[in-house]
Amino acid sequence: QVQLHESGPGLVKPSETLSLTCSVSGGSVTGYYWSWVRQPPGKGLEWIGYIYYSGVTNYNPSLKGRVTISVDTSKNQFSLKLRSVSAADTAVYYCARGVTYCSTTSCFFEVWGQGSLVTVSS
Amino acid sequence: DIVMTQSPDSLAVSLGERATISCKSNQSVLYSSNNQNYLGWYQQKPGQPPKLLIYWASTRKSGVPDRFSGSGSGTDFALTISSLQAEDVALYYCQQYYTTPWTFGQGTKVEIK
Q1: Residue B66 to residue B68: CA distance in whole angstroms
Q2: CA distances from A86 to A15, A83, A90, B77 (A)
Q3: pLDDT tens digits for A58-73?
């Protein structure tokens, strides 16, 4: 079955850019909506944004334009960039796949990666 | 944004007893054209990602034990565990997917009494 694996630096300095990649195995990125969700230590879940395999994106306005999500169908992976990070961005970052019948405004998540802890600190 | 509020924040239930978690949204997540509630429930155990349990407010995902059930419509929803088992100790989150940004409740911690 499909598996997701997040990778990237575990430590990022304040004001720099957080970069993570989600590698998809056992399935294709084609045909699905792919999201990033984060969870600060001891806190709840926040949806960051999604990308459709065609490249269509939608981001959470709470992140004030700091986010870019991209997809590389040839590598079967998608990526997150979060600019100008601060300590408030310290979290476990999950990549997740939406169900087959997602739409541009409606989606929930049936497959999740194990998560990647990113700490923002100098 | 649609704000999702869960209650209680935590609850302790004896093994074999019923556990009920409430989730309320500040606007309806019922889509009138298809009469579906755009509401899901997830379970998260320590050190693990969330796991989808329920979608469309009351549809159990394949493989989820039937002691888990979802109910409600519009703005008021509930997740019920009919007979709590030790392996059900976890955090539970509701999520609305009626409109972006998709939002989650703050979580409810279920423990054994």
Answers
A1: 5
A2: 6, 9, 8, 35
A3: 999 999 889 999 999 9
Segment A102-122, tens digit of pLDDT = 888 889 999 999 999 999 999
Minimal-distance CA residue of chain B relative to A114: B49
- A-chain residue closest to B94, CA distance: A45
Contact check, Cβ <8 Å, A108/B49? no
A94 CB neighbours in chain B (<8 A) are: 49-50
Interface check for A105 against chain B (CB to CB < 8 A): the answer is yes
Can you give the C-alpha Rg of chain B in angstroms? 13
Give the angle B5-B16-B72 at the CA atoms, nearest 5°. 30
Q: Which of B38, B48, B47, B45 is nearest to B94 (CA)?
A: B38
Measure the CA–CA gap between A14 and B62, rounded to whole angstroms. Answer: 43
Non-local CB neighbours of A104 within 8 Å, separated by 6+ positions: A52, A56, A58
